[in-house]
Amino acid sequence: MSTAYVIVGASLAGAKAAETLRDEEFDGPVTLIGDETELPYERPPLSKDYLLGKAERDTIYVHPQAWYAEHGVDLRLGARVTGIDPAAHEVTLADGSRAGYAKLLLATGSTPRCLAVPGAESGGVRYLRRVGDSDRIKATFATADRVAVIGAGWIGLETAAAARAADVQVTILEAAELPLLRVLGREAAQVFADLHRDHGVDLRFGVQVAEITGSGGQADGVRLADGSHVAADAIIVGVGITPNVQLAEAADLETGNGIVTDARLRSSDPDIYAAGDVANAYHPLLGQHIRVEHWYNALHQPQAAARAMLGQDAAYDRVPYFYTDQYDLGMEYAGYVEPGGYEQVVFRGDVERREFIAFWLGGGRVLAGMNVNIWDVSDTIQAIVRGARTVDAARLANPDVPLEAFLGD
Ligand SMILES: Cc1cc2nc3c(=O)[nH]c(=O)nc-3n(C[C@H](O)[C@H](O)[C@H](O)COP(=O)(O)OP(=O)(O)OC[C@H]3O[C@@H](n4cnc5c(N)ncnc54)[C@H](O)[C@@H]3O)c2cc1C
Ligand SMILES: NC(=O)c1ccc[n+]([C@@H]2O[C@H](COP(=O)([O-])OP(=O)(O)OC[C@H]3O[C@@H](n4cnc5c(N)ncnc54)[C@H](O)[C@@H]3O)[C@@H](O)[C@H]2O)c1
Fold first, then answer.
1. φ, ψ dihedrals at 48, nearest 5°
2. Per-residue pLDDT tens digits for 202-236
3. What is the pLDDT of residues 40-52, one digit of tens each?
4. Exposure of 24 by Cβ count < 10 A (0-12 exposed, 13-18 middle, 19+ buried)?
5. H or E stretch at 301
6. pLDDT, tens digit, for every residue of 343-355?
7. Sequence-separated (6 or more) residues with CB below 8 Å from residue 376
8. C-alpha–C-alpha distance, residues 214 and 206, integer Å
9. Can you tell me which atom of ligand 2 is nearest the CA of 156?
């Protein structure tokens, strides 16, 4: 059997796993296979500084090109894995070649959900996942007067902020009653609705998109189910993603909202692991499986996976974390709350000025905290979530009581 460690998916999770294997002094062959032609890169800038034209392309790469050869990582770009044969310990590539493995990591990430309405295939309908998508949207902002954004999730809101910075008129069309409602709940979601309204975005909630209108194959607007029409030079769609589980499913691995793994990122096959957006991993702190679609998880989880592949005892139990930047609002969120899975939100600071911390409480404990335009507190918030101590809500809301007072022993 091959001694190689093979990683499928050459983005942040895949590149971090390769790096960790070498950091841990694994000296066998490491192969990193990705179907994009670009060096492994980070996606957050694609809807922020790179889209805004403030960051150059070479700032998005996980490692410079030379790093891979210097570390003996066989980086195969533009190469798609089409199948896994767990019994033979081999993967098959689109060109018909095969690569044997001792251990395999699936870091295949996710793919944007497509809008399923008439006209959705028209020119000018844009999704944002890859660097080329960001380039096309940036070019659109340079010429468009108005865009419609479908979905007020992370892609929709960050892209809307970038469009406003380019002086493009924006209408956001969201099915739910508020932006980010499933993640933040009503209380904190309102902050993001107010933020975008204050920057001149036309926000329409509770709407149903019926059709993308256009002529000559080119989109010119969105028809809603109530018959109204929103004219737009381009349409940006951010209606969520689906994890890329096709290889895992075809290989009969256990799947369900991603590739199901244990806390060491091991799938139902003992030699196949998963990490990043695609992994639905058991989280020891939360006592349940979760799949996280964020940068921090794709950065750290593959490090645990790589160590586990080397036989180390390396469960992944970091407090989930993500961040966003929109206009002059920067925020970090740490913790995990199922939609509607909290009893109370406690605000500490000045919500009107957007300088505050919000805490989500359940069973008297802090489940999650979000710092908005307040910095150097996320580590403490993560420690509070981890400590899981019962807290007094009134004291938590009082900025004169130091956050450290709520840490566990
Ligand atoms: C525009 C944008 C902005 C974001 N901003 C933030 C942010 O501000 N904060 C935050 O926390 N998170 C952010 N995220 C989310 C974060 O980028 C993702 O969680 C992260 O990219 C997941 O990394 P990954 O390596 O698991 O998967 P991916 O980045 O999806 O990479 C998977 C790779 O595997 C490849 N692949 C899939 N199948 C195969 C196959 N069969 N063969 C070969 N290759 C294959 C894919 O083409 C892709 O290159 C953002 C995402 C996007 C798209
Ligand atoms: N700052 C960040 O953490 C960040 C930034 C950008 C992207 N991302 C990641 O990128 C991925 C994609 O982001 P996203 O914004 O597409 O997904 P999302 O899940 O964050 O939001 C999707 C939004 O679209 C709405 N929606 C769904 N179907 C709709 C429809 N037919 N019409 C109108 N609204 C509809 C949903 O109610 C939801 O508000 C996610 O994994 C996200 O975590 C993260």
1. -130, -110
2. 999 999 999 999 999 999 999 999 999 999 999 99
3. 999 999 999 999 9
4. middle
5. helix 295-309
6. 999 999 999 999 9
7. none
8. 23
9. 15
Q: Count the neighbouring beta carbons within 10 Å of the beta carbon of residue 172.
A: 26
Strands, sheet with 288-290, edge to edge from the N-terminal-most edge strand: 259-261, 279-283, 288-290
As a whole number, mean pLDDT of residues 296-317 equals: 98
Q: What is the dihedral of CA 130, 132, 134, 140, to 10 degrees?
A: -150
Count of C-beta atoms within a 10 Å radius of residue 60: 20
Closest residue (by CA) to atom 3 of ligand 1?
44
Atom of ligand 1 nearest to the CA of 129: 53
Q: Tokens standing for 401?
A: 């009581």
- Check whether 408 has a pLDDT greater than 90: no
Tell me the HSE value of 315 on the side-chain side, using a 13 A CA sphere.
Answer: 11
pLDDT tens-digit series, residues 152-175: 999 999 999 999 999 999 999 999
Residue nearest to atom 27 of ligand 2 (CA): 239
Q: Which ligand is nearest to the CA of 246?
A: 1
Two tokens, residue 60: 């998005």
**Ligand 2 in reach of 294 Cβ (< 6 A):** yes
- CB of 173 shorter than 6 A to ligand 2: yes
Element (H, E) at 125: strand 125-127
What is the value of pTM for the model shown? 0.98
151 ligand 2 Cβ < 6 A: yes
CB atoms within 10 A of CB 12: 24
